[in-house]
């Protein structure tokens, strides 16, 4: 009986330790959809304007992606009737495309328990473009009925692993050279806008 109780106690302690270790090692894996919110958007005759807010609910500072090759510029692709606007650097390269200049990703620091509001503008009709060469051409013009907006963020311990491929431009600005064979461990925040009519063309 004592042996049985002892085994149960050891099993409980082991389970508790594993759960605690798992939580500590995966604090960034919580895909908290409340971290990003689309505040407003407008579809004007010549441009699409969207305002959004990101709130850092984690227990550490993070670095959020502001754009690829330029602030507010991202990867744009169309899948069926959904338009993807993506500000993150861990997108896979298209191996069939020769890229002469590797993309540079811009990141800004967002301290824990703080938030930042930003606005992004894209000319209409939206051109399907990718710094990773991952888009296939579409013919003519179509209307997207939904938009998925994705923003990546990197934890400080992951930045240190990038070594020479990451450098600070300012105290709160980080540039990451996106190299095909260098893995960037980036988490993705996502927000969606449905029931819209956004013109997209090649």
What does this structure look like?
The protein is α+β, with helices and mostly antiparallel strands and 202 residues long. It has two domains: 1-30; 32-201, no CATH class. It has two helices and twelve strands. The chain has helices at 2-25, 156-162, and strands spanning 36-43, 47-55, 62-68, 75-79, 82-87, 104-110, 115-123, 126-127, 141-154, 166-170, 173-177, 187-201. Strands 3, 4, 5, 6, 8, 9, 10, 11 and 12 form a nine-stranded mixed beta sheet that branches. Strands 1-2-7 form a three-stranded antiparallel beta sheet, with no helix packed on it. The longest helix has 24 residues, at 2-25. It is globular, with a radius of gyration of 21 Å. The termini are far apart. Residues 9-31 have low confidence and may be disordered.
Structural class: alpha+beta
On the 0 to 100 scale, the average pLDDT is 81
Count of extended strands: 12
**Overall number of domains:** 2
The shape is globular
What about the largest sheet?
9 strands, mixed
How do the helices and strands follow one another from N- to C-terminus?
Answer: HEEEEEEEEEHEEE
| Low-pLDDT residue spans | 9-31
N- to C-terminal distance: 74 Å
The percent of residues in helical segments reads 10-25%
Strand content: over 45%
Q: How many distinct helices?
A: 2
Rg, rounded, reads 21 Å
Short description:
This protein is α+β, with helices and mostly antiparallel strands and 202 residues long. It has 2 helices and 12 strands, in the order αβββββββββαβββ. About 11% of the residues have low confidence.
